[in-house]
Amino acid sequence: MGDERIYFDTALGHFHDGEFDEAVHTCRWGLTVYPDAGRLWEVCGLSLWMRGDLGSALHALEKASVLVPLAPLAQFALAAAYAWADKPDLARTVYRYLAQLPVFPVPLLPRLAAGAGRVGEYAVALLVCEKIVELRPGYHPAWFGIAYYLRKLGRPIGEAIPMLEQALTHAPDEEMYRLNLAACHAQTGDGEAAYRIAETVNVGAVRCRHWLRLLLPVFDAAGDLVQWAACRTRLAELGDDCPRCL
What we know:
By secondary structure, the chain is mainly alpha-helical. The chain is 73% helix and 0% strand. It contains 14 helices and no strands. The radius of gyration is 23 Å and the shape is elongated.
């Protein structure tokens, strides 16, 4: 065990220093002598994941998982590798497990929410975003995430509005939040609220036809011919590309 520990400590030191090639090299040397050293497989898989070699990372992390209980970071990397390998069911299983852990690295929570969302685990992503705002109330992307995943789960638009208001409160210059909030108000029939939020939006920079189509009658009803004309012009310019909208 003594020599195995030396390999592990050396590899882990390289990993923490961001020297992922050296970490992989050390792990592989150690694994030639100790092929069932689960922690070496784990550090090797994590280093390969950080290096962007997801195929090799998946092999190493799966090997580690049958030898030792994986640390949360390694499980997160395994879920990401499963998603990359087009194994969404396995990725969902891991993401669901991680979301229920009482302790998970806080800096990784946004990536956990995003990863779960990418494989269609919207309820998990919502839960993680809610955890984030409990821990970091000023973290505006999580407030937007709550609104986004509420809508993905088919919840009424009215439930998303307070979350978007929180996001905009913490990031008042974020146009995406402003546009989503205005669009939500427009869809609930509150044109006045929609106009108050959208009147200063730079319509020429909007990349979403859905937003523009919702705001066009809002500007028309408010008698804002400048913004109305800008909307018409921008609609004529755009293709079908659309960022995240509710």
